[in-house]
Amino acid sequence: MLFCLLAALPLRSQTVTKVDNYIQYVPGAMAVGLKLCGVQSESPLGDIAIQACLSFVSEAAFCNALKYSICEQRPDGSARNSFPSGHTCTAFTGAELTRIEYGWGWGAVAYGFATATGVLRVVNHKHWWWDVLGGAGLGIGCAQLGHWLTPKVKRLFGNGKSDEVQFAFAPTGMIVYF
Q1: Which residues touch 40 (CB under 8 Å, ≥6 apart)?
Q2: Could you tell me the pTM of the whole model?
Q3: What sign does the dihedral 136-141-142-148 (CA atoms) show?
Q4: Which one, of 114, 118, 144, lies nearest residue 28 by Cα?
Q5: What mean pLDDT do residues 88-104 have?
Q6: Torsion sign over Cα 131, 126, 1, 6
Q7: What are phi and psi of 125, to 5 degrees?
Q8: pLDDT bracket for residue 158 (50, 70, 90)
Q9: The dihedral sign for the CA sequence 103, 106, 110, 112
Q10: Taking a C-beta distance cutoff of 8 angstroms, is the pair 106, 153 a contact?
Q11: How far is the C-alpha of 132 from the C-alpha of 88, rounded, in Å?
């Protein structure tokens, strides 16, 4: 599949597909979803949630800081925020989180989706190949940063009695009448 997409690169001058807008989230969903499905992981669900939050927040911050300070023109001329590829950065952050938690078996699947995302960004003329490589490296680095910061955040906010941080989710809403 990868070779077919690369072969189509010189033949297309416009967007081939928009599937990259969706598959960028698959690796990150795998990192949490596999645990929810009962797959054995290195960490408990709370730790995976903390890693994911730290990784994706740092990924968004670093990626956007670079995009809007470097101001590289996109191949299709649509904007000046090409480097690094945000889609690829998101995909590789999730892929590395999946690899850290579940090993290379599931990690290879996640990296396949991440690689497809990067290739499609180039095929669709949204990024140059170096934008995709930069996004991939940044994403992997942010996942490693989130993994490294997790025990420190747990010590900072934990109560010292448990290795796992407890989470509570309480959806709220606000109705505004005009």
Answers
A1: 102
A2: 0.81
A3: positive
A4: 114
A5: 96
A6: negative
A7: 60, 35
A8: confident
A9: positive
A10: no
A11: 6
